[in-house]
Specification:
The chain is mostly helical. It is built from two helices and no strands. Helix 1 crosses helix 2. The mean pLDDT is 89.
Length: 81
């Protein structure tokens, strides 16, 4: 699907993209929690923030992996017009 032979180039580009979007979601959530803790009283503990961050990262990674093929197809269709 990605144009690369299986295993020849390492990780699939779509899987890598989804992983990186998940990492961005995870780190962004932690930055927001830390920023709020600096401005006001902390609303969650560090452990709770990490668990919530993992859930946000997982959600953004899954969302990226589900939406990326649709967005790529839409962009390809728009380019044809």
């Amino acid at each position: 699907m990605s144009g690369y032979p299986s295993g020849a180039m390492g990780i699939d580009p779509r899987a890598k993209s989804a992983f990186l979007w998940g990492l961005v979601g995870f780190l962004s959530f932690l930055v927001l929690v830390q920023g709020y803790a600096l401005l006001a009283e902390p609303i969650v503990t560090i452990a709770q923030a990490l668990v919530l961050g993992l859930l946000v990262g997982l959600g953004s990674g899954v969302g990226a992996s589900l939406l990326e093929p649709r967005l790529a197809a839409r962009a390809a269709n728009r380019a044809k017009e």
